[in-house]
């Protein structure tokens, strides 16, 4: 139903957001390490 789709959408967004943050953090850390 519509409710479960909305919940799935929120979970998917949270999953993608969490992965993006983790990826960005790792990427920034690698750039910072390379710069030293």
Description:
The chain has one helix spanning about 1-35. About 95% of the residues lie in helices and about 0% in strands. The protein starts with a helix and ends with a helix. The radius of gyration is 16 Å and the shape is rod-shaped. The mean pLDDT is about 80. It has one domain (about 1-35). The chain has about 35 residues and is mainly alpha-helical.
Key features of this structure:
94% helix, mainly alpha, 36 residues, 1 helix, rod-shaped, single chain
Catalogue the unreliable spans: none
Instruction: Report the total helices.
Output: 1
- Through-space gap between termini: 53 Å
Strand-residue proportion: under 5%
Order of helices and strands: H
Return Rg in Å: 16 Å
Major sheet attributes: none
Backbone structural class:
mainly alpha
Rounded mean pLDDT is 79
Query: How many strand segments?
Result: 0
Categorize the overall geometry: rod-shaped
Number of spatially distinct domains: 1
Fraction of residues in H or I helices: over 70%
Give a quick precis of the structure.
With 36 residues, the protein is mostly helical. The chain contains one helix and no strands. It is 94% helix and 0% strand.
């Amino acid at each position: 139903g519509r409710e479960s789709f909305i919940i799935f959408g929120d979970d998917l967004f949270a999953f993608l957001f969490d992965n993006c943050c983790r990826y960005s953090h790792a990427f920034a850390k690698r750039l910072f390490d390379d710069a030293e």
